[in-house]
Amino acid sequence: MSDFPLSIHPSIRLREVLNTPVATQAVSVFDSFSVRSAELLGHEVGMLGGSIAAMALLGAPDIALITSTELADLTRRLTRAAPGFPILVDADHGYGNPMNVFRTIGELEHAGAAGATIEDTLLPAGFDRDALGADFHRRGRCQNNGGLGGQSQS
């Protein structure tokens, strides 16, 4: 088990792990057994990837068929199996327009996720971070589709 007390909220635990000078590898989790195993083996963070969620829920590749509700339900099952263990969830594209992204993040936070990743740059500009919960950890990612030989300058 990790060195963090169970009473610390998973999002705070995730922030503490990410603020250490040591690189941390998130272990893939997808069901109650995998998340409990990850925690018992001493991993500090779990990651529910989109492709893993699609395979766990549908037995199919990730071709954007699962819904935000299905993802939140799966997340809830994982967080119930290992309370206090920080799980970062791949929320794909947020499941729609900016309001859907807002709802997806809220549902994942309510399900007990420590944080989420969102693809692309279609998030609403200047969204209110505190409205989503000050301790909920967020990360965005985008796919570089060209420009400067396919390399990002950020």
Question: What can you see in these coordinates?
Answer:
The model is unreliable at 122-127 and 147-154 (pLDDT under 50). The chain has a single domain, classed as Alpha-Beta Barrel (TIM Barrel). 31% of the residues are buried. The protein is built from 5 helices and 5 strands; from the N terminus they run αβαβααβαββ. It is globular, with a radius of gyration of 16 Å. It starts with 9 loop residues before the first helix and ends in a 14-residue tail after the last strand. 35% of the residues lie in helices and 11% in strands. By secondary structure, the chain is α/β, with parallel strands linked by helices. The protein has helices at residues 10-18, 32-40, 50-58, 68-81, 98-110, and strands spanning 27-28, 46-48, 87-90, 115-118, 137-140.
Main traits of this protein?
154 residues, alpha/beta, TIM Barrel, 5-stranded parallel β-sheet, 5 helices, globular
Task: Walk me through the topology.
Blueprint: H1 10-18, E1 27-28, H2 32-40, E2 46-48, H3 50-58, H4 68-81, E3 87-90, H5 98-110, E4 115-118, E5 137-140
Parallel strand pairs: 1-2, 2-3, 3-4, 4-5
Helix pairs in contact: 2-4, 4-5
Spatial order of the strands forming the largest sheet = 1-2-3-4-5
Assembly state: single chain
What is the percent of helical residues? 25-40%
Largest sheet: 5 strands, parallel
What value does the average pLDDT take?
83
Number of domains: 1
The CATH homologous superfamily name equals Phosphoenolpyruvate-binding domains
Query: What is the rounded Rg?
Result: 16 Å
The proportion of residues in beta strands is 5-15%
Q: What series of H and E elements makes up the topology?
A: HEHEHHEHEE
